[in-house]
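Researcher: Good morning. I'm working through a list of sequences from a screen, and I'd like to move beyond sequence-only analysis. For each chain I'm collecting a predicted structure so we can compare shapes side by side. This is the next one on the list. No need for commentary yet; just the structure.
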Amino acid sequence: MSRPPFLTLPPCARAYRLATARGEFAVHDARPAGPPRGTVLLVPGFTGSKEDFIAVLAPLAGAGYRAVAVDGRGQYESGGPRDEAAYAQRELALDVRAQAAALGDGVHLVGHSLGGLIGRAAVLHDAAPYRSLTLMSSGRGAVAESQRARTALLLHALTELGMSMAEVWTRMQGMEAEAADPAAPPALREFLHHRWLGTVPEQLIGTGRQLMTEPDRVDELARVPLAKHVLCGAVDYAWPVPQIEGMGKELSAVTTVIQGAGHSPAAECPEATAEAMVRFWETVSGSDRW
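Model: Good morning. Structure tokens for this chain:
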């Protein structure tokens, strides 16, 4: 669960609902002072939300990029149906395509963790709308065995035990130090609780199954003629860092390891993460024309 370092939007950003051909999505939209060098679409991961990118909005806007972080279908403030089929990976990938179209196409697509798998699916479906793809803390297939076991426990609670989101949250507070960290500011603890309760359980069920069963699609992605960036923290619990780095080599991607960061570089080391992404976009031919 990513933990944003703060919750107040920077002056360059505003919150609203982005209208697309596939419905409305809650976004944080940061604009540069002058004409944008490019537009960035930031897709969050499992149990996450647009707030996971809040700390990179100002640095990206300051570098001249319009940065739009989104709550996906069923995540936090976007809402979604109580139907697991609505959260199939293809459906979520088509949502990303619609979001890109609403922003004008030609976006630099960034997917964190699960968002990376969804972004990969979007590019494999149709790469034309995107200027580049950044896979942030996202692996080549299913998550590591320890994370599959944790996800299986969550799915068991939501499906077989029929627990509510509130009941699962209470159970998590008793089991996981990360969720119950007493040192976290009260406002952050309240936000994490509110975000959890705002997430549609079927979204967690459907995407949790994806994390546990996602096939290796690196060979497919390598054949897509699109600029690629693989970025991760120096430590990652969801996918082994050497595996992520190896994926970067197979993709002929720019590969960046953010020292001092774990699974959520955008929240943990936002300045270094933003700088790495900007350096990559500057290598993408013609990126400043968008």
